[in-house]
């Protein structure tokens, strides 16, 4: 079975871990958002890509979901002493990733090539593809002006009100090599429970991606459970963009792109209205507190793709 999963950061990484535990390594390709990448302290940081790779490599920090486990913070402490910005916390082990990636990018190598080599070094057997080798950046248009994603998300703790979101650089960006092939050759495409507006929208906006996803057996896992985001600002963004957050709102957002939506048991009341949108609802526990939850959700989604499809 060939599965392509579209993922942002922590939520996407958790489901990718579950899928990786059920599927053979060559059966899974994870296509990861890079629109929240940024330059910081002279380094190129790719948070979602690293979060997914570290999770699949079993080297991620289980407490935060991002960064490395067994981390130390000596460089950050010294940077702070020198007056450098420390709002974005980069651990010593994690810094090695950004330094070596930046060195190789400066030599003109592609992010997808570097990512494949890093995955080999970390023992990640699955294929992890950045959505593009080109530079695309999510810009949040807020009541406090335009903010880069990490400035909005980490530095401002997603407090400014979002009016609109744009992806700068998208007009000149192409999907990374192998992205379209992975989508077109997949038996199932899974949209992970990542933020629809800032994690999955940039991937879907790349030329050819949305049509490949809608042509396939595509299933999303709702990142909204009981009207709230599992993590991060997704529910707040729905409200600020004028849409009450719910599993049904997620279905409406992905209408025409997905054929099924996994919703949490708590959202079973939305099943009928989701069906009326022409989307098959699959109801199960979607909260991934531990490894067992991740495995169970992966099983449910894969079972649905293989046998529940009508
Ligand atoms: N998230 C935070 O909330 N605070 C941080 O200081 C932080 C540092 C960080 C460093 C490396 C990395 O790969 C991720 C990091 N994240 C941090 C997570 C990241 O900002 C978000 O999870 C994603 O960008 C949202 O998808």
Task: Give a description of the structure.
This protein is of the alpha/beta class. It has helices at residues 10-22, 47-56, 74-81, 92-106, 111-122, 149-155, 179-184, 196-204, 209-215, 234-240, 247-253, 271-276, 291-308; strands at 3-7, 28-32, 38-40, 43-45, 127-130, 137-142, 145-148, 162-168, 188-191, 218-221, 224-225, 228-229, 260-264, 280-284. α1 (10-22) links the parallel β1 (3-7) and β2. The radius of gyration is 19 Å and the shape is globular. 44% of the residues are buried.
List keywords for this structure.
19% strand, seven-stranded parallel beta sheet, single chain, binds ligand FO1, alpha/beta, 310 residues
> Given the structure, what is the number of helices?
13
Could you give the count of β-strands? 14
Largest sheet: 7 strands, parallel
Share of residues in strands: 15-25%
Q: Walk across the major sheet and give the strand order.
A: 5-2-1-9-10-13-14
Bound molecules: ligand FO1
Question: What does this entry show, briefly?
Answer:
It contains 13 helices and 14 strands. The protein has helices spanning about 10-20, 45-55, 75-80, 90-105, 110-120, 150-155, 180-185, 195-205, 210-215, 235-240, 245-255, 270-275, 290-310, and strands spanning about 5, 30, 40, 45, 125-130, 135-140, 145-150, 160-170, 190, 220, 225, 230, 260-265, 280-285.
């Amino acid at each position: 079975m060939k599965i392509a999963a579209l993922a942002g950061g922590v939520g996407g990484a958790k489901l990718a871990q579950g899928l990786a535990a059920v599927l053979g390594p060559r059966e899974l390709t994870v296509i990861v958002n890079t629109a929240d990448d940024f330059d910081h302290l002279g380094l190129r940081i790719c948070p979602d890509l690293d979060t997914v790779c570290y999770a699949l490599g079993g080297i991620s920090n289980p407490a935060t979901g991002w960064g490395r486990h067994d981390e130390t913070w000596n460089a950050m402490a010294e940077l702070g002493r020198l007056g450098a910005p420390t709002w974005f916390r980069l651990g010593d082990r994690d810094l090695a990733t950004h330094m070596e990636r930046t060195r190789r990018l400066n030599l003109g190598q592609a992010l997808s090539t570097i990512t494949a080599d890093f995955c080999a070094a970390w023992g990640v057997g699955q294929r992890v593809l950045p959505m593009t080798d080109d530079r695309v950046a999510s810009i949040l248009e807020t009541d406090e002006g335009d903010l880069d994603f990490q400035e909005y998300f980490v530095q401002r703790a997603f407090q400014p009100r979002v009016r609109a979101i744009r992806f700068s650089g998208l007009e000149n960006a192409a999907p990374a090599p192998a992205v379209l092939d992975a989508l077109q050759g997949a038996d199932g495409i899974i949209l992970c429970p990542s933020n629809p507006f800032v994690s999955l929208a940039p991937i879907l906006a790349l030329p050819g991606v949305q049509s490949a996803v809608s042509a396939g057996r595509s299933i999303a896992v709702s990142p909204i459970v009981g009207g709230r985001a599992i993590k991060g600002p997704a529910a707040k963004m729905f409200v600020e963009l004028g849409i009450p957050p719910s599993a049904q709102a997620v279905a409406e957002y992905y209408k025409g792109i997905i054929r099924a939506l996994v919703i949490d048991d708590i959202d079973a009341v939305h099943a009928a209205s989701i069906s009326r949108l022409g989307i098959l609802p699959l109801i199960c526990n979607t909260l991934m507190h531990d490894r067992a939850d991740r495995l169970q959700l992966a099983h449910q989604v894969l079972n649905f793709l293989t046998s529940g499809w009508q």
